[in-house]
Amino acid sequence: MIRNDKEYEEAVRRLIDEKQRLGQQKAKLKEMNLSADEIKRALDPMRSFHLQLAEEVESYERLKRGEFAEVRNLRGIGQLLIAARISQGISQRELAQRLDVNESQVSRDERNEYHGITIERAARILDVLGIDVVSRARRVEQAEAALV
């Protein structure tokens, strides 16, 4: 997950570089008179990496626009907290200052996607970021029926 503008810029540069490398590798494989299937098999790992990186870049861009993914049963709350910080354009350092904690604490928490965070701490982070999370509870049978 891309967590700041510096990582985003690096990912965009890597995407451009990877696209060029893909083109160069494809040309080399064609020069070797490989079949289309052989070229595809040889390039699939590179393409897979490229697509994954492109997805991370797109995800970061959505976060910067304030578009959050849905959180179910509090799973993904860590990613929501990171997304909320990113959408506000706040650095880890600034969040740490607002929370009155060390910057290394925020960095470590985000690296671990806030695994094991308490509800109180999550609420405090959301408060300092000015994010309001609205939840709704329903029985599982109702939720499953709604999916049908």
Task: Write the SSE topology.
Blueprint: H1 5-31, H2 36-64, H3 77-87, H4 92-99, H5 103-111, H6 119-129, H7 140-147
Task: Summarize the structure in short.
With 148 residues, the protein is mostly helical. It folds into two domains: 60 residues; 78 residues, 434 Repressor (Amino-terminal Domain).
Can you tell me about this structure?
The protein is an all-alpha fold and 148 residues long. The protein has 2 domains: 5-64; 71-148, lambda repressor-like DNA-binding domains (434 Repressor (Amino-terminal Domain)). It is 70% helix and 0% strand. The chain is built from 7 helices and no strands. The longest helix has 29 residues, at 36-64. It starts with a helix and ends with a helix.
| Total number of helices | 7
Task: Provide the CATH architecture of the largest domain.
Answer: Orthogonal Bundle
Looking at the structure, the CATH topology of the largest domain is 434 Repressor (Amino-terminal Domain)
Biggest β-sheet strands, sense, barrel: none
Structural shape: extended
Helical residue percent? 55-70%
Query: In terms of structural class, how would the helical and strand content be classed?
Result: mainly alpha
Q: How many separate structural domains?
A: 2
CATH class of the largest domain equals Mainly Alpha
Number of strands: 0
- Uncertain runs are none
SSE order: HHHHHHH
Radius of gyration: 21 Å
Taken as a percent bin, the fraction of beta residues is under 5%
Gap between N and C termini: 32 Å
Report the mean per-residue pLDDT as an integer.
90
The CATH superfamily of the largest domain turns out to be lambda repressor-like DNA-binding domains
